[in-house]
Automatic annotation (TrEMBL):
Subcellular location: Cytoplasm
Organism, as annotated: Calothrix parietina FACHB-288
E.C. no: 2.1.3.3
Sites where the protein binds L-ornithine: N160, D223, S227, M228
Residues annotated as binding carbamoyl phosphate: S51, T52, R53, T54, Q78, R102, H129, P130, C131, Q132, C263, L264, R291
UniProt-recorded name of the protein: Ornithine carbamoyltransferase
UniProt cross-references to InterPro entries, sorted A to Z: Asp/Orn_carbamoyltranf_P-bd (IPR006132), Asp/Orn_carbamoylTrfase (IPR006130), Asp/Orn_carbamoylTrfase_sf (IPR036901), Asp_carbamoyltransf_Asp/Orn-bd (IPR006131), Orn/put_carbamltrans (IPR002292), OTCase_ArgI (IPR024904)
Superkingdom in the source lineage: Bacteria
Gene: argF
Amino acid sequence: MVALNGRDLLSLADLSSTELQELLQLASQLKSQKLKLHCHKVLGLLFSKASTRTRVSFTVAMYQLGGQVIDLNPNVTQVSRGEPVQDTARVLDRYLDVLAIRTFAQQELETFADYAKIPVINALTDAEHPCQVLADLMTIQECFGSAKGLTLTYVGDGNNVANSLMLGCALAGMNVRIATPVGYEPDSAIVEQARAIANHQTEVLLTHDPEIAAKGASVLYTDVWASMGQEAEADDRFPIFQPYQISEQLLSLADPEAIVLHCLPAHRGEEITEAVIEGSQSRVWDQAENRMHAQKALLASILGAE
């Protein structure tokens, strides 16, 4: 993965299809312990949003590579007192080898990347969640051998995960269907970007009908109906999103061998039923584990681990 050495990952669109496949292959090799890599570098985590899986998986991945992690809680740094992003970026650049940022605005992430010479990784913004989708694609390949030609259906809010899924599926040669309520569609610019990547070889479909989207799909995927920062809207969203629940009925429309994914945390009884998330077709816990392996591969590639 020499091609990724020293590069940022702000969006899945920063990768080519070949680079994505090589990254997923490396993640699989690291998971199976067929390959062991080491890099004695320092990762900084600058997270303005709450995190369980992203924080822990990045931390464990870096430790397993032989590196160190510094948790840069914004509440105890000068960031919380209004230090300009460009100043923070240039200072952290002198201390760290790589920086993973979890924040609200994609523009803030891009400003960090503009002013810091070290690699910057998108650990979640309101626009995208690329590291999550790396783990998703890894899980799909584990289950089916290859993602190419499969259909992934996402039902729910057209949020950052939906945006990154469109890009990731297009890069992986998958069809992707996004079913949302009217007014909750994914970012139109990212839709067009994904369609350009797909280049008419695969489908990027938007619909308001979850049953049409689910029919024959190999993967059903959902996320919470109200993302971080939207908690005040949760009660209002509930009746709007109720038809977009992954239930046993919706799952029955998919391919009989279909798997179910959820990026977590899950609100059981809302976007997914208890029976489905705990059922035999759920791969949610493998998906969560693969966050660590996919991010380890990403860190190793970016940092030039040997």
